[in-house]
Amino acid sequence: MQAEEILAQARSENIPGNWTVYPILRKKLQWGILGWIFGVILGFGLFTLIFPIVVPYNFEHGPVLIIFTLVLLGIFLFIGLGSLWTLVTDIRRLSESERHILVFTPESFVKQEGSAIIQVPMENIEYVTSRGVRSASRTISESERVSVHSVPSMGENIASFFIGRGATSSGRQWLSKRSRTPTSLAFLNSETGKQVTVLRDEAYGNPSEIGEVLKEYAAQQRQGKTKAGISSLAEGE
Question: Looking at the domain 3-133+180-236, which fold is it?
Answer without folding.
Answer: PH-domain like (2.30.29)
